[in-house]
Structure formats: structure tokens, C-alpha cells
Amino acid sequence: MRAFLPMLFLYGTGLCASMQVGLVGPIANMLRGQFDLTQAQFGLVASLITAAGAICATPAGVWAARLGLKQAVIVGAITIVLGAIVFSQANHVAFLYIGRFLTSFGYLLIVVAAPSWMTHLGDRRTVALAMGLWGTFVPVGIAMGTWISAGLSAWLGWRMAVLGCAIPALVCVIPLMMRANPPREGFNRSLAKGISGVLRDKNAIAIALTFAIFAGTTSATVAFMPTMLMDRLDITLTIAATIIGITTIAGNIAGSLLGGILLGRNIQGRLLLLVGLPLMASSIAIIYMAPNLATVIVVLCAFNIGQGIVAGTCFALLPRIAGNNLSMPALQGMLAQFAEIFVVIIPPVSGLIIDDFAWTGAAIAFALFYLASMGVAGRRIAIMA
After folding, report:
1. DSSP string of 234-302, one letter each residue
2. Which residues cross the membrane (predicted)?
């Protein structure tokens, strides 16, 4: 119980960070109508949430740890709220970009500091549980952001939806202010040694690249999915967001638990990735071309189970890869940096594909991106991982 509450609140900060990714999907039509955005411009608005991480996530992991993980998480939450205020008050597209870029710094601080703090919450079993839970923060947070944003935007408008998805971050950090910083002994490496260690490790590079392609593609699929469902199946935004929210949360939790159980029985992490990623590739292709809502719901469940398996496995492998030789904060930072580079790139590229080839083109592109991630996992991650 002593470790459970800080684990819960740290996970909550991660959910609030990922909600910033999911909130833009439901307000896409409102933003495009008010600011006359193309699909590609909207894709850039969506992807800028991770711009800071794409620039400096690896060193940020080391800096945040050496300065204090508690302070990093608190500052991250405050920065997310400040960015949301700028975004919500925008009267020109430039302020949309500025707000998202500012929010990206808060997102970065949380995603590198919170999981590193989790590795100091207890014994090996507790840490494994915490990291497995953390593995679901991206898809579950995105789903919650999509759901909350849809409800608030339909009721109070898109500006309040943006603020409503950011303010919970402050609620989560208040209990963490009462906690002491984790011991600094594990974070006393120099910046150069922390970064060079993870950049030289083949497994670290492989898991970071696998997760990066997966994360960038997932960000794009979710950002465009509400609009796709409304366009193709003629349903309302509220229904679309509810379907996405329920299937994402339930499927990811189930997939994460399944992956954790299998890893606990010494099933290779690489094998789980080679099952989860092709499941996601085939599922997303069906979802974006499905002829009816029933098919979408069923296949969305499979897609999100695969997502839970992949995300949970990637994060559960990090302590194994780090071992005693690598800096865990630097490894977490590198994973975030690789992911955020692809989250910046893939949504705008996907928007261009949708502009030229409609939703069928998106279905094929998303499937190929997931298969590329599978290719990296199969060829580059050592069998022992």
C-alpha cells in the first residue's frame, strides 16, 4: 500500500500527459473550421505535443534525474496547464502551435521522470508491476483525452475541452509533493556517460526504435479516427469517442495484463512484440475500411489488446535492458526521444496521405508502419530480451 499510492499518482500524471495527445481528435473539425486548417496542418498541431522530446528527451532524462525527479514531475504538470491555456485562448493558428509546443515540454518532463521514479518504489516485483502499468499510459491516456474532449467540446466548446484535459495534471501532483525525492545514487552519472551508454547498446536502440514507430503510428491512428468514423459511418462525435474510449481502455488493460503474465512466465519479450504488432497492423487496416460499426467495434477490441501487449512489453523490457550498466533515466529519455520524433513525423505524413488517398490510403499506410516496427523488433532485439 505504501508504494501503491505514489504509483497511482505517478501513473495519473502520465495519463494526463497522454491526454494531450488524444484531446485533438474530437476537436479536429472545429479547429479546421475556425482556423481553415488542411489535414496536414492539423496533423502538425496534433504532433507538436512531442516536439520538445524530439529535440532533447535523452539528455532531459539525465538532467531531470540529477535535478530531482519530484521537481521534474511537478514542473511538467504546471507546464502542461500553461500550454493548454495558450492553446485554448488562440485566435490565430500560430498560437495553436505555440501552445502545443509549450505543452510538449511538460509532457517530456513527465514521461522521463515519472517512470524513473517508479523504479525506486519497492522491490523487483513491485517495480515490474509499476512498469507494466506505466506501459499503458499512452493508449489509455489518449483514449481518456479523446473521450473527455468529445464530451466537453460538445457541451462547452473546444476551448474548455483543452483546459479540461489539462487541469487534472495538477490534481495528480499535489499528493506527490508530500513524497521525498528518490535517492540520487542511481542518477549520479555524467550527462555524457549516461547518453553514450544507451546509444552504444544495441538492445536499447532496438527497443527505442520499435516503440518509436509504434507510438508515432498509434498517435496518428487515434488523432484521425474520430473524423474517420464520422465520415465513413455517419455517426456523431460523442458516439465515436465513446466507442474509441471504451475499447481502448478495456483492450489495453487486458493486453497489458496478458503481456505481464506471459513475461512473468519467461516468454520472450521479442516474441510478444512479434505477435502484437502484426495484430495491430491487420486490425487497423480493417478498421479504416470496415463497412459497418459492428465490425469496427469488434476489431477495435483486438487492435487495443495488441496495443496493450506491445506497449506493456516495451516498458517492461527497459529494466532488463538497463541492468546495472545503463542509466535508466537516460534509457527512458532515449525511448521518449525516439518516440516523439516519430510522433512529430507520422501524423502530418498521414494527413498528406489522407488528403491524397482518403481513408483507404491511411489504412494501408498505418498497417505498413506497424509492420515496419515489427521488422525492427524481429531483426534487432536480442532473443534474450
Report:
1. ---HHHHHHHHHHHHHHHHHHHHHHHHHHHHTT--HHHHHHHHHHHHHHHHHHHTT-SSHHHHHHHHHH
2. 40-65, 72-88, 94-114, 126-150, 156-178, 204-225, 237-264, 271-290, 296-318, 330-351, 357-377
